Amino acid sequence: MYLTVALALTLLVLLFARDINRSAHGAIGPRRSENRSFGQMVNLLVAQENSLDARLYYLLQHGGSLSRPVFAARLAQLSQQLPGWTTEAELLHRPVLAHHVNDLVFALTEQRIDDYQNLFSDLASRLSLPWLPAPKGNQVVSGPAPSLVATVNQWDLARWSLTHEPGRVTLPELSMGAAKYYVAVGTNQLTSSTSLAPTRAIGIVAVEVTPTPLPAAAGVLLLPPVTSIQVGVTVSNVAYIEQPVTLEVVFKPSFGPARSQTLHTVLGPLQSYAFVPGALATVASERATLRVTVSGAPPGPGLGNSRTYQVKISPSGN
Fold first, then answer.
1. What distance in Å separates the CA atoms of residue 65 and residue 22, rounded to the nearest whole number?
2. What is the pLDDT of residue 11?
């Protein structure tokens, strides 16, 4: 009898404690605090997103007056803001709020990050600008600008989710000026800009021969009696574009077959590269023609794509 009563009382205490816990969890005070804190954090995130939208909108409208390096730098600055959005969106993922609005905010933010990454890549591709691929795991979006518009429309519905909840929070609006402009105008103004038009120009900057040639007339390489010579060729890409380059070195003795070497590389924008072909075998008293040629693009201002030298090996002292 007493055991039954004790068990019944224990059960009642447990049920009462559970009800109190549920009541406390659902109390208006904590929920109001959670909703308002969530609203403040979303305000900060949306302010960043709207700032990027405004800057991108301006770049799309006026970027045609910029040089290629400056345009690429500004586009890169916008792209560098995106990783921070992921961190902030993850902080908004918990606790679970009414209508699961926090889950929707997280999903929409992740989608918008992918959209912007794809839009930036598309823009860089259309202008032949050097651009790093999107971070691993980012979703490929075929129509990033329409997708951005769609996320804003979804946001406009979701931002009222907490209006009638404790705290009466209304989430801020997202702007979409850049996305709507991209959908309507695309890149026509940018791709028709003369200052953004991709140009190609390369040239030979220097040719170095080892051992060091003796004093001689221009275009003549007077060398001591050695069994081989080493040629080094520095080539520059003087345009803001990635440029494949091919170097050909031809050594043609007065007697015997010509020997050639071909090397390839890809030069980044405004970068130089030093080619070092294999050593060329020589003999004392040899006469030969050395021709160095680079191909892949027209010669840049003040540079040439080919150099020819008359090679004279001194007689042996033996």
1. 62
2. 46
Ranges of residues in the chain whose predicted pLDDT is under 50:
1-3, 5-21, 23-25
In a domain, 318, yes or no: no
Asked if 130 and 68 touch (Cβ cutoff 8 Å), the reply is no
Residues 232 and 263 in one domain: yes
Note whether residue 197 is domain-resident. Answer: no
Asked if residue 140 and residue 278 are part of one domain, the reply reads no
**What SS3 string covers 275-295?**
ECCCCEECCCCCEEEEEEEEE
Centre a 10 Å sphere on the Cβ of residue 292 and count the other Cβ atoms it contains.
Answer: 22
- Please give the structure tokens belonging to residue 156: 């406009």
Asked whether 55 and 179 are in contact (CB, 8 A), the reply is no
Q: pLDDT tens-digit profile of 126-185?
A: 999 999 876 655 667 778 999 999 999 999 988 888 787 787 878 899 999 999 999 999
The whole-angstrom separation of Cα 122 and Cα 102 is: 30
| Residue 4: burial class (beta carbons within 10 Å; 0-12, 13-18, 19+) | exposed
User: What domain range is 303 assigned to?
Assistant: 202-313
The pLDDT score that the predictor gives to residue 24 is 46
Shared domain for 221 and 144, answered yes or no, is no
For residues 42 and 147, membership in a common domain is answered with: yes
* Torsion, CA 104, CA 110, CA 113, CA 119, rounded to 10: -80
pLDDT at 4: 55
Of 195, 101, 108, 197, which Cα lies nearest the Cα of 147?
108
pLDDT per position as a tens digit, 176-211: 999 999 999 989 899 999 999 999 999 999 999 999
Bridge partners (DSSP) of residue 253 are 288
In a domain, 88, yes or no: yes
Q: Residue 134's pLDDT is what? A: 67
